[in-house]
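User: Can you write out an input/output pair for a complex, sequences first and structure second?

Assistant: Here is one pair. Inputs:
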Amino acid sequence: MGSGSQLWNITRKYMTAGLIAFTVQDRYIAVAQVQGSSMSPTLNPRENSFIGRPTNDRVLVEKWCLEKYKFSVGDMVVYSSPENHKVRHIKRITALPGDWVGAPTLSDTVIQIPEGHCWVEGDNSASSMDSRYFGPIPLGLIRGRVTHVVWPLQRVGAIERKVPRSKHVPL
Amino acid sequence: MAVRDFGRFLWQNFREFSRDAIDPVMHVARFFCFLHITSTRLVTPVRSEGPSMLPTINLTGDYVLAEKISARLGTVRPGDIVLIRSPQNPRNIVTKRVTAVEGQRVNFVAKPKESDLCETTVVPKGHVWIEGDNIYNSADSRKFGPVPYGLIQGRVFWRIWPPNAFGPLGQRPE
């Protein structure tokens, strides 16, 4: 009797902890693993290896920004791919609604970002699948903003907002 | 000796006090976490209003239940009514009907107020075509094109208010 209720108490404690942890990572802050080299050298740089084996960065993703959907140019965001909703990508916002961007692969002229959309590009433009390929994406696809690198330990630090000036088309 | 006893007395009191204070807080926290998980992963009540889904959903606002499972699994099919984050304003969630999914051909009346002229297009990979049931007054895919599947927030399946219309929802009207 006694051991049974103790077991139940312990189970309940773990359940509560799990419930709270799940809610926090769903609503407020989460840790995500970065795969691929599209954000290199900011994330997953080439020299990022541990005993010869390349390791993936882990980053902190904050989700408060989803209350208002207010973003700035230069924010690094996680979004679900417009081609497959189960896949998440990390890219940098380089233009917001109303801005003009040049997209040589989509059209010959510059295009204006429509209302409620943004333009995302990887830091490593040589190997990045981004808006240059599928055009502007709706802001509603964004799932969070990347703020810090938390792993590996030697690269822990905040990610600064970087504005790629050269990509903006002056009006 | 007395000091140590007093210290122990304080410590015990503090432990009891903190246990008494923490327990209700934990109950409330657990309740809200449970609420969050059910409403984001299972089912949530929504108030849907506006003219775009007439006659299926009333102008003044019906309360409906939306389930989150099929949106997450990717099993939303043509004919389903979905809650979808508006591609024009991410703060708004709108109710529309999916008329075609990726790879399907879709016919639509581009400007129903002016002509019956039909246009045809193919929905690209990972996208859906959404339309309001009231094509005369609806901002949908006919205006902004196919939308990514990732914007779907849930599938509306049951009407709970007004009570005389209580029942399943989401089949294509004949």
